[in-house]
Specification:
Blueprint lengths: L1 H27 L5 H4 L2 H11 L2 H17 L7 E7 L4 E4 L1 E10 L5 E10 L1 E4 L2 E4 L1 E5 L3 E8 L5 H15 L6 E5 L2
Parallel strand pairs: 8-9
Antiparallel strand pairs: 1-8, 2-7, 3-4, 5-6
Helix pairs in contact: 3-4
């Protein structure tokens, strides 16, 4: 009976060794790149945010044209977007507040504050630490479409632009394509 127990123990050890080997193979497998999982639209926005304002507006125009072209009644469409401002970088700042109590007849409290920008050291250069980058604000949208003479199509286009960009109705113009 002892021989049977010895073989059983050996089989258990082999099973453990096999499971550990499988675990190591799974750990060593390459992980897919995150960018390959993103959709094409997300990649366009990411590229647009890193590019200049003209490229940012062009990317937004292209995405809006692609979306509107799929709407019934719109037909061939061309979009122009104007930006009210450029992108803005918000720099991290340290705030220092001091208060001083004065003794005497008037007795009072003086407070003062000061702000200094936080700098990041990289390659021997100090650059301001940017905590947030704000995208440019959209000023107006012009949409030229084949269905630009149909009131329902105009309303659908206007509502879509408002939902996507938060632009007021009076800053959206829909025209018929000739």
């Amino acid at each position: 009976m002892k021989m049977f127990e010895i073989r059983k123990i050996k089989k258990d050890k082999w099973l453990i060794i096999l499971l550990v080997g499988l675990l190591l193979v799974v750990i060593a497998m390459p992980v897919s790149d995150i960018k390959s999982d993103q959709t094409q639209d997300e990649q366009q926005v990411q590229k647009a945010e890193n590019a200049s304002e003209d490229t940012y507006a062009d990317a937004l125009e292209t995405r809006l044209e692609n979306a509107l072209a799929k709407v019934e009644g719109v037909g061939n469409v061309k979009v122009m977007i104007t930006l009210a401002s450029s992108s803005e970088k918000v720099v991290e700042k340290d705030q220092e507040m001091t208060s001083e109590v004065q003794e005497g007849e008037s007795g009072g409290k003086n407070t003062s504050s000061s702000e200094t920008a936080v700098y990041a050291n990289g390659n021997g250069e100090e650059t301001p630490y940017v905590k947030q980058e704000l995208s440019p604000r959209i000023e107006g949208v012009l949409v030229i479409a084949d269905g630009g003479d149909n009131a329902i199509v105009i309303e659908n286009i206007t509502e879509a632009v408002q939902a996507l960009f938060g632009v007021d109705t009076h800053k959206i113009k829909v025209m018929k394509h000739n």
